[in-house]
Write a structure and sequence with these properties.
The protein is mainly α. It has 7 helices and 2 strands, in the order ααααββααα.
Length: 233
């Protein structure tokens, strides 16, 4: 009698129905990396046309793009090995997907902090005559952003101990009795996401007093507000 092919379910990583979400994940990833590439490229082209040397925010934007490509690559491998499907019939694929997802998660806070520090350095360059209150606010938000990134990185990297329990079959997460310990990653990432949202709001609000105190028309102030909001989105 023929035996059915075993399937392996990894809760939280795969679709909860029979649909294959891989193409949607890939399409979204391609769209995001394309948008980031265009934005950074146009930014650097503008600097070249104006014959202006790169500033700290330009270097950080370029670094963020490099890490974004690393995230994109890891996501492509995740999808290749089954991310987005409910069940996998290839245990080797499930293990490989776990490894690449681990890399993706670890890269996220690094990419994010490079982007946010680029924005903060841009604020510093644009508002070169800022007052002490703005300076303290700028550095405080920057320090909090770095603290969030460090916490996010180490929470992700050491979510399980030993670390390789995430992709071990015998005695690992695929076993009824894992040979190790893992934190409640969903709860941890939810907490980090809440803090990240608060910090994003601070990043958005930070330049607004400076913008609205500029000696320019109301129309220009609204336009600048929109531009800064778009940049922080």
């Amino acid at each position: 009698m023929a035996q059915s092919t075993p399937s392996y379910h990894m809760p939280g990583l795969y679709a909860q129905d029979n649909a294959n979400r891989g193409p949607a994940l890939l399409g979204g990833s391609v769209t995001l990396i394309a948008a980031a590439s265009i934005a950074v490229t146009l930014r650097l082209i503008a600097r070249r046309i104006k014959k202006v040397t790169w500033a700290a925010d330009d270097y950080l934007a370029a670094v963020a793009l490099v890490f974004a490509y690393a995230m994109f690559t890891s996501m492509v491998f995740c999808i290749k090995h089954g991310l987005g499907q409910q069940r996998l019939t290839n245990i080797a694929g499930a293990l490989e997907a776990s490894k690449w997802l681990y890399v993706f998660e670890a890269l996220f806070p690094v990419t994010t902090i490079a982007t946010k520090l680029s924005i903060l350095c841009l604020y510093r360059r644009i508002f070169s005559t800022f007052n002490k209150t703005f300076a303290w606010a700028l550095y405080t938000v920057g320090a909090l952003q770095v603290g969030w990134a460090v916490s996010g990185f180490f929470t992700t990297v050491f979510q399980c101990w030993p670390v390789n329990i995430l992709w071990r079959l015998e005695g690992g997460l695929f076993s009824a009795h894992p040979a190790g310990h893992c934190i409640d990653l969903v709860a941890s990432l939810t907490g980090l996401a809440v803090i990240n949202t608060v910090l994003n709001t601070a990043l958005l609000v930070l330049p607004m007093p400076m913008v609205w105190n500029l000696h320019t028309s109301q129309k220009h102030k609204v336009a600048l507000t929109f531009i800064f909001a778009l940049g922080c989105a």
